[in-house]
Structures are given as structure tokens and as C-alpha cells.
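User: My collaborator sent over this chain with a note saying "see what the structure looks like." That's all I know about it. Can you take a look?
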Amino acid sequence: MTIFLTTLLILLCLVIVLLILIQRTSGGMGSALGGGAADQVLGAGSAAQLTKLTVWGILGFFILAVLLYVTYQGQAGEVETLQRTGFEMMSAPATLPTPTDIDVPAPTTDPVPAPVIPGEQVPLEGKKSE
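Assistant: Without extra context I'll predict from the sequence alone. Here is the result:
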């Protein structure tokens, strides 16, 4: 149910954005983005219908948002009830692994080569420098 309502809410958002974009503007940047295009497509008296559709779309958006909120809160309440009553399937395992049960690799004793500073003579392995 929540997936359907969420999808419907997203589609309604897109419709509202398109309705707002095609309404008549008073000029400026809005006319460059397609403002007033509805008059060319739907006729000169389309402003009142677009305004009504926009209002109904926004009303539907708020109703869907509240429905989703109530649905999610109901699901969260179910989880809290299960946690308060000590639901057995959600409890922690009876035995936890101890540190001795975990295989940890032994540290290596390989010598780490010393960093070489530019301009210094590097001693060769097996030969001692004088």
C-alpha cells in the first residue's frame, strides 16, 4: 500500500510542476520556460481551469502526504510494540562468540625496510657500510 501511495505522490508532484509551468506568467524568465503555452494549446480561457486543476492537485498532494505519514507511523508503532513486549524472533542470540573463538592472524615478524632519504647512500644487505 505504501509503495502505491508513494508512487502516486511522486506522479502527482510531477503533474503539479507541469501545471504550474504552463500557466500564464507576467513575463520575465517564466515566459522563456514555457509560461503561457496553455493559451496556445487549450485556448484563451484556460487560465481559470488550470488554476482549479492546480488547487485540486495541491490538495491531493497534501492528502496523500498525510495518508503516507499515518501509514508509516502505524508501521513504526507496530515495531515499538514488538520491541516492548520482547518479541522472541528479534532478540539477540543466546551465546555470543568470545575473543578466543575468533581466528586472528599472527603478527608477522618480517623486518620493515627503513625509509630511504634522498641523497643518502643505501647500505646493501649482507655488507656492512664503513
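A starting point for your reply to your collaborator: Residues 46-84 form the longest helix (39 residues).
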